[in-house]
Amino acid sequence: MGIRVSPPGTLVALVEAGSFCVSDPSGDVVDRGAGAAAGLFVGDRRVLSRLVVTVNGAPVAPVDHRMDGPASATFVGRAVAAEHPDGAAPTGTGPAGPVVVRRRLVAAGLRDEVEVRNTGPEPSYVEIEVAAASDLAPLAAARDATPPAQDE
């Protein structure tokens, strides 16, 4: 993998039979509004509307991603230190944070493997948080950013 950063607004789409997943280059699934519907869609429903990984309370900054096939991808990022949101490390402390590798597969659902690599010389402990949500929105409503109809 070469070093590259996808332009803002770039989305990654994985497709398998009647299912597809759309995410940010970091691997996070975050709905950005009309025309940029992200999530895991099965049939005509969005079954996963949010999937966000944070390390030590901070987001993972995308470094690179690679499509391994039409239904699989690898995302590489670096955990950004909360006190250094630009990713810079204090002088003499080494890398800004651990490397986060996510391997995603869409097949009979979604499988997301998260690997955290410490690149520093000392042992490190990290807190990983995964936030997930589902809204079961129909495909058209998710695409147009309209809220799903409520049954009365």
Brief sketch in words of this structure:
This protein has 152 residues and is mainly beta.
Tell me the helix content.
Answer: under 10%
| CA distance, first residue to last residue | 51 Å
- Residues in β-strands, percent: 35-45%
Main sheet overview? 7 strands, antiparallel
Rg, nearest Å: 17 Å
Helix tally? 1
Report low-confidence residues grouped into runs of 5 or more: 89-94
Shape: elongated
Keywords summarizing the entry:
mainly beta, 4% helix
SSE topology:
Blueprint: E1 12-16, E2 19-23, E3 29-30, E4 39-42, E5 45-48, E6 50-55, E7 58-69, E8 72-79, E9 99-106, E10 110-117, E11 128-133, H1 139-144
Antiparallel strand pairs: 1-2, 2-4, 3-6, 4-5, 6-7, 6-11, 7-8, 8-9, 9-10
Q: Explain this structure to me?
A:
- With 152 residues, this protein is mainly beta.
- The chain has one helix and eleven strands; from the N terminus they run βββββββββββα.
- Strands 3, 6, 7, 8, 9, 10 and 11 form a seven-stranded antiparallel sheet that branches.
- Strand 7 and strand 8 form a beta hairpin.
- The protein is elongated and about 50 Å long.
- About 4% of the residues have low confidence.
